[in-house]
Amino acid sequence: MSDGPGVGKGVVTPLRVVIGLCLVAPFVAMLWVGSYAKTDPTFIGIPFFYWYQMLWVIISTVLTVIAHRLWQHDQRGRRTGDSASAKGGAAR
């Protein structure tokens, strides 16, 4: 059975790889506890362990916004590409 044109066709593009990396990076940074399980250097009296995690809250927000904008760009490109191919196919 066919679900219709374009349904279920997952395409891996460089843009989608970048989107995935933007979304995975915070998880890797936070799950690798050994890299930040220390007290030095301190920042305004706050141990590294705490300010590193708080910094990743900001970085994660920025990376998520970037991933969202890239996803919107990707979807706009796919819509214009689909409509152009549909017009080209209908003209034949």
TrEMBL record:
<dbReference type="Pfam" id="PF11755">
    <property type="entry name" value="DUF3311"/>
</dbReference>
<keyword id="KW-1133">Transmembrane helix</keyword>
<keyword id="KW-0812">Transmembrane</keyword>
<dbReference type="InterPro" id="IPR021741">
    <property type="entry name" value="DUF3311"/>
</dbReference>
<keyword id="KW-0472">Membrane</keyword>
<feature type="transmembrane region" description="Helical">
    <location>
        <begin position="17"/>
        <end position="37"/>
    </location>
</feature>
<protein>
    <submittedName>
        <fullName>DUF3311 domain-containing protein</fullName>
    </submittedName>
</protein>
<feature type="transmembrane region" description="Helical">
    <location>
        <begin position="49"/>
        <end position="71"/>
    </location>
</feature>
